[in-house]
Amino acid sequence: MYHHNPNQTPRKSLRLEKYDYSKAGLHPKSTSFRAYFITISTQNKLCLFWKIENNKIDLFEYGKMVEKFWLELENKFDNVKLHKFVVMPNHFHWILEIIETNKNCDCKICRDAPCGDPIMMLN
């Protein structure tokens, strides 16, 4: 099991300075990039999500919880579109979009992209 070393040099933040991450995921230097790559690790890098035992993955309760919350995001937030995710033993990765929906439009296309705003989708 890996344990975090507090004497290790801290990682540099990859977040853009002064960028408002609460807005729709439009990258300031592009008109098509709308996805966020999110990584969340457990405290002290403890392996709380799953382990391999007898050549089988044993998914723990916390790993099931991460998957459950991921799958519920689109139902809870109209402006979130899910792409890919993976749960590792001590962290998980999510790729999601925060989209702007056209409130005046009644079509299902707005779920994938704002009306009249073609974007390159990650599938």
Describe the structure.
The chain has about 120 residues and is an alpha+beta fold. It has a domain at about 35-110. Helices cover about 15% and strands about 25% of the residues. It has a 3-stranded antiparallel beta sheet, with helices on one face. It has a two-stranded antiparallel ribbon with strand order 2-3. The relative contact order is 0.18.
What is this structure, in a nutshell?
The protein is α+β, with helices and mostly antiparallel strands and 123 residues long. It contains 1 helix and 5 strands.
Strand order of the largest sheet: 1-5-4
Global outline: flat
Gyration radius, rounded = 18 Å
**Main β-sheet, in a few words?**
3 strands, antiparallel
C-alpha termini separation: 34 Å
Q: Strand portion, in percent?
A: 25-35%
Secondary structure category: alpha+beta
- What is the N-to-C succession of helices and strands? EEEHEE
Percent in helix: 10-25%
Stretches with pLDDT under 50, minimum 5 residues? 116-123
Count the DSSP helices.
1
Mean pLDDT score, rounded? 76
Q: Please tally the β strands and state the result.
A: 5
Oligomer classification = single chain
What structural keywords apply?
123 residues, two-stranded antiparallel ribbon, alpha+beta, disordered C terminus, 1 helix, flat
Write the SSE topology:
Layout: E1 35-41, E2 50-53, E3 56-59, H1 61-76, E4 80-87, E5 91-98
Antiparallel strand pairs: 1-5, 2-3, 4-5
